[in-house]
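Hi V.,

Quick status before I head out on leave. The structure for the redesign project is tokenized and pasted below; the design run finished overnight.
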């Protein structure tokens, strides 16, 4: 699932279509993305998204980083399943 957000009146607002709002999106939240969603995000950003396995190997002190001009934040958060 991808949740994309734009700035609207100094607040984040969830948008339904990443592609239609791509130039305005300031935050994209990926939660268990499908392969198609991952490919779409990688194409949109022009960078490779780390796999779940790669994210689990990232040291806690290195979970906020910049790569090829894109900001990445890897967070472990509780989620209801």
């Amino acid at each position: 699932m991808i949740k994309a957000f734009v700035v609207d009146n100094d607040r984040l607002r969830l948008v339904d279509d990443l592609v239609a709002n791509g130039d305005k999106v300031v935050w994209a939240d990926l939660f268990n993305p499908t392969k198609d969603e991952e490919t779409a995000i990688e194409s949109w950003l022009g960078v490779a998204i780390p796999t779940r396995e790669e994210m689990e190997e990232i040291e806690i002190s290195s979970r906020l980083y910049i790569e090829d001009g894109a900001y990445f934040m890897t967070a472990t958060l509780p989620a209801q399943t």
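Above is the designed sequence. Residues 2-73 form one domain.

G. will cover questions while I'm gone.

Best,
W.
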